[in-house]
Amino acid sequence: MQIASGRTIMLSSESALRDFRAYYPGARNQVCVVRFATQPPAAFLNTDPAEVIGAYHLPANYFYLPNQFYRHKNHKLVVDALTILKGRAIDVVICASGSKEDRREPGYYDLVNSEIQKRGLEAQFRHLGVIPLPHVYALLRASTALINPSRFEGWSTTVEEAKSFGVPMILSDIDVHREQTAGSARYFGVDDPVALADHLMQAVQEAHGPTIRNVVPHQDDNVSAFAASFAATMRQAAGQDVGEPIER
Hints:
Layout: E1 9-11, H1 14-23, E2 31-33, H2 49-55, E3 63-65, H3 75-87, E4 94-96, H4 108-118, E5 125-127, H5 133-142, E6 145-148, H6 157-165, E7 169-172, H7 175-181, E8 186-188, H8 193-206, H9 219-237
Parallel strand pairs: 1-2, 3-4, 3-6, 4-5, 6-7, 7-8
C-alpha cells in the first residue's frame, strides 16, 4: 500500500534497501536510507553496574545477550556454543534478558530452556527475563562483550547501544551487522556454533577483570548525523527537495 500510494520509503540500512529492490523491483518510489543512532539518557546511567551485577548474582566477566526469545534471534546457537565450551572445560557465562513470549510461536522459550537444562548449562546461561532499562544499560556497560546471534535484523538497537558505549561485540555474520559495525566486531556464521565458541573463549582469555564503560566521546556527532539525515528525508517526503531519489 505504501508503494502503491507513491510515498517516500524510509529504510534503516543498505541491507534493507537491497531486500526492497529484490522483492519490489517495480517500485519507483523515492527511497531514503536513514541509519539511526542512540543517545542513552543520562538518567538511565546513574544506576551502579556493580550493584546490578551483584543483584543478579553474575560473575565479573559475562557476555550479554539482550534479545527477545524469537526463533530468528537464534538463542539455540548460543546454547550449542556453550555446550562446546563445556566440553573444553571453559567456563563462560551468558547473561540474557528480554521477553520469553512470542505469540507467533508459543513454547519456543520452553524448547530452548529444556535444552539448557538437559545439557546442564543453567549456570552458564542465565535468563533474567524483562528487566528495567537502566539495568540493561548497566549490564551492557560492564559486559565482556555484547552477543547478537540473530539470523535477521533491521538496524539493531542493541548493536547501536553497544556502539554508544564502545562495548566489544560478537555478532552473527549477516550483512546488516557488517554494515552497522564497519568490520569492527567479531563475526560468526548463523549456523556455526564452533566459531562462536572460539570467539567466546578468546574473549574470556583476553578479559582483564570488570570494566565499566561510559558513552563514547563522538556519540553526539553520530546522533547529530542521524538527526540531519532524518530531517532531510522528511523534507524530501514533503516535496521540498527536487531531483533524483536519494539514499542516505
